[in-house]
């Protein structure tokens, strides 16, 4: 992290959740005034379903982080907030898991290099070697570990956990990683794994969604980025997109047509996560776009 | 039907289905040349799933219908075609079933009066009286028959069948008609009933799809027009549309937001059906747009 | 307006614009706390182009309007705000001008009756009589005054101004009203007239945009709702939508295809205006969706 | 080209244009029957604007190309057709011109390597060296020649013409090539140069369209793939897409947001061209999707 100086004020993202009640915005904005902060962006949501209040603020100030926290602490205590304060634009440390399909990885790496995706990727981990060249072209370390049985699967998942610890990983992205994660891994990384599913959920869960879509004769196919839970393809949805198809498309053509939606949907979800725009409200997500 | 004269050549729509094999297009186009016809529009599709060949042709000729049929008959026989030849633009006789929601009926009636929907509607039939005024404003006969138990439901369905016979109905439209039709009625009118379901099928079948969509936290809601079969919300899909929503929308707001998609999706399906652009290929539809 | 009581707290929309500077949010939220208010929705925007700060708040309180204003006044004065405080959901008094095309009027009236459009329409004014039946079916007063020359045009515009005064009109909607308003009228009602233009502006300004679109061979046609200024089709854009077309569509078919986009685009713009979600930032609009 | 054998029948694409008149389809399909061909796909269009008839057919036959041509020749002569018969799926030889923006080139090269873009790219030619690495990662020859004045521009354009001759180029793609081609070059390669313009034409022609779009406050930004003519940004449009933006986006953010639409729009246009699905009808294109 860079430290703010008077000459270069820092920009921060504050997000928090607490029970909905009067006075929250005033208390928080008061603390920000105390921290000589200016609010640049602000979004809030009161959930009727859970009675909770969600807020995301971007602020600019020339005081250091510790001073911001000091003035926030009484407010945090009073409202019993779950909160986070992060430097705006700081790239989130991201581990990407892949198998053999290249399109979503290519999109993530290309956009990251273009400076459009606020993540750093210390490692791409795969159960195949196929995407090594692509990762390395973008200067990203790549490891592959075959997953062929229960033992090798356990070893792969242990490698995931080790990599998470080693690189202080904040986000794990399943970029068309074609293995189901164990419930234990899902639980340990709860709220930190994003998957791209190649259908418009909740339609066509599980394997071969394009084949299912073809058989059902849908007129739009889609992609869904969601948090991974131990309940397959049932985790909270972050983003979805669809594209029109017609009767003349084979299941194989749907696979190709859907790639754009998969790539853009996953990239969008990762971007929002990295910008602290995704908050969890039970089984649903709040997206402060 | 108007009869074609040399001065006013008739325009016809020919659709047919047969086993896929070489020579079909040449044989059909030969018959059309014989009938002094000019092909104005032509679409075809070979189904890999079922091995069948589908074609839709619009043609112009100054010979009467009987003469067209006469030259087509040998071709029809040779290729064992299921076929249909109809005057282009002839409004299809349509029975509309409604309950209390007005938006899809309003859209159909408004578009029909504007000359944009090629149907005539000799009757709107409802299990409530709520939409009488709307139907009558558009000069459309309206009847209501309460459906409260098995007997009244049977009576309603008998009235549907009677109306179909009486008005020589070609299409029955369920414009947010909130009763499930009996398997017998579905069977009798197979391929002639179009329903609008207020979700993006196959997600959220059955009752209260917007409530289901809200609970699941989807980021797009949709509407699906499909043929009705005895398998609820599982009939062949004709058209689908979606619209973006976010976390801040209540289930009630989704109901309102979805109305546009329901109206346009149903209207599109009815239009295509009325233009003989919808053909059945097993559980899927061929749409010759 | 209804008055709030302790048992039935009032819901209010506060919008304001001022020079961007630190402390605004805190000062405003402090006043709201003083007024025993709870902030239900909040959006803000700092314009880099003009250096101005825009905010919209929805709040709930059991104190009357005068008390809210009293606590706000020092803040308003300190920051030199242009501001507005209105009861949330209060229907805006709207004058609709039409010619002969029915689709946007039909959509507005249908949605208003369904309770989905927060306006009241004391008068529909037209230069033709064609839409009288439609207006009257929805219980809306209708007047027509022919516009055939400079004198009758001046008389029509005077009738507009009289109606605005008489009904205390807050918004004038040109629902496919096919006359160009005089610069004087545009100026007098600046920021209060919304037009629907049947193209994706800035493409195809002026007359016959669908014909222009056909000639140019565009692959998407669109609609644009914008504020009217004396500079034809150049006023600030509020909302735009497009729909895909292909080479086979005639200019006449484009007219029909575009109706949906015109209706939904105009309705969306009117809804946002009526909910105080549209603010002006020079030649651009801020939309707090 | 591969030669068809009885065991491996060839698949061909026939496209032609002629004056619209009766009997064309029958004559062509008769020739195809003579060539032992089976029609797999067929599309046609009669242009009211120009009185011309356009057709594209995909057919399968086990006779060699010369035999197909032999049976077609009388038909071609009789109807005075401009025609083309190409092997289906044959990759078109494509020269890509770029400057420094990587996204459209990356998309084309990635899709080509995935087997989804039916082109071969013997050369990427640039006025900068910036994209050499990217081209070479995908195994594509890359040359750069600076363009700084009239002479170097002439030299660059001569290199284009030489490369076209040397590699028997069928299509030149301007993948965000930021120089205006001379009228002479446009004329020599008429109907064979596709450009991607980063706006929804005809809005925002010329330089800095995203800056123009921001200033005008449009609510959707877009991309347009079109044939290049000597009339800047006025050539026949092949494909267009748009994406929604709001007031909070800076002109710089629009540049980033628009990249997806540019990439997909250009790729779509190139794919259709390579599949012989794009025909010219005066200033408009016929797209047989």
List the helices and strands and how they pair.
4 copies of one chain form a homotetramer.
Chain A: E1 10-19, H1 24-34, E2 38-46, E3 52-61, H2 65-79, E4 82-87, E5 92-98, H3 103-113, E6 119-126, H4 132-137, E7 142-144, H5 150-166, E8 171-174, H6 183-188, E9 193-197, H7 209-216, E10 220-227, E11 237-244, H8 251-274, E12 278-281, E13 284-287
Parallel strand pairs in A: 5-6, 5-8, 6-7, 8-9
Antiparallel strand pairs in A: 1-3, 1-4, 2-3, 9-10, 10-11, 12-13
Molecular structure report:
4 copies of one chain form a homotetramer. With 289 residues, the first copy, chain A, is α/β, with parallel strands linked by helices. Chain A folds into 2 domains: 10-87, ACT domain (Alpha-Beta Plaits), CATH 3.30.70.260; 92-287, Rossmann fold, CATH 3.40.50.170. Chain A is 34% helix and 30% strand. Chain A contains 8 helices and 13 strands. In chain A, strands 7-6-5-8-9-10-11 form a 7-stranded mixed β-sheet, sandwiched between helices. A 4-stranded antiparallel β-sheet of chain A has the order 2-3-1-4, covered by helices on one side. Chain A has a two-stranded antiparallel ribbon with strand order 12-13. In chain A, α1 (24-34) runs antiparallel to α2 (65-79), α3 (103-113) runs parallel beside α8 (251-274) and α7 (209-216) crosses α8 (251-274). The radius of gyration of chain A is 21 Å and the shape is globular. The model of chain A is unreliable at 1-7 (pLDDT under 50). The A-B interface holds A 45, 48, 200-204, 215-220, 222, 236-242, 246-248, 250, 281, 283-287, 289 and B 45, 48, 200-204, 215-220, 222, 236-242, 246-248, 250, 281, 283-287, 289. Chains A, B, C, D: GO terms for molecular function: formyltetrahydrofolate deformylase activity. Chains A, B, C, D: The active site is at 233. Chains A, B, C, D: This is Formyltetrahydrofolate deformylase. Chains A, B, C, D: It holds the Pfam family Formyl_trans_N. Chains A, B, C, D: InterPro entries: ACT-like_dom_sf (IPR045865), ACT_dom (IPR002912), Formyl_transf_N (IPR002376), Formyl_transf_N_sf (IPR036477), PurU (IPR004810), PurU_ACT (IPR044074).
């Amino acid at each position: 992290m860079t430290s703010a100086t008077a000459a270069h004020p820092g920009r921060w993202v504050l997000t928090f959740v607490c029970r909905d009640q009067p006075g929250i915005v005033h208390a928080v904005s008061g603390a920000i005034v105390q921290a000589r902060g200016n609010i640049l962006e602000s979004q809030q949501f009161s959930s009727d379903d859970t009675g909770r209040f969600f807020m995301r603020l971007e602020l600019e100030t020339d005081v250091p982080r510790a001073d911001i926290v000091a003035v926030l602490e009484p407010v945090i205590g009073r409202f019993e907030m779950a909160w986070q304060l992060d430097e705006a634009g700081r790239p989130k440390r991201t581990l990407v898991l892949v198998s053999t399909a290249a399109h979503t990885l290519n999109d993530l790496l290309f956009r990251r290099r273009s400076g459009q995706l606020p993540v750093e990727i210390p490692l791409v981990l795969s159960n195949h070697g196929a995407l090594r060249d692509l990762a390395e072209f973008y200067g990203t370390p790549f490891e592959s570990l075959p997953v062929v049985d229960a033992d090798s699967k356990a070893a792969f998942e242990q490698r995931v956990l080790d990599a998470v610890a080693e690189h202080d990983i904040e986000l794990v992205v399943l970029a068309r990683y074609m293995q189901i994660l164990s419930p234990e891994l899902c639980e340990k990384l709860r709220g930190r794994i994003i998957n791209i599913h190649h259908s418009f959920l909740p339609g066509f869960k599980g394997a071969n969604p394009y084949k299912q879509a073809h058989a059902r004769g849908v007129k739009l196919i889609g992609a869904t980025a969601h948090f991974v839970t131990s309940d397959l393809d049932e985790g909270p949805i972050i983003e979805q997109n669809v594209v029109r198809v017609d009767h003349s498309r084979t299941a194989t053509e749907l696979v190709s047509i859907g790639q754009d939606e998969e790539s853009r949907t996953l990239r969008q979800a990762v971007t929002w996560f990295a910008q602290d725009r995704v908050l969890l409200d039970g089984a649903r997500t709040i997206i402060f776009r």
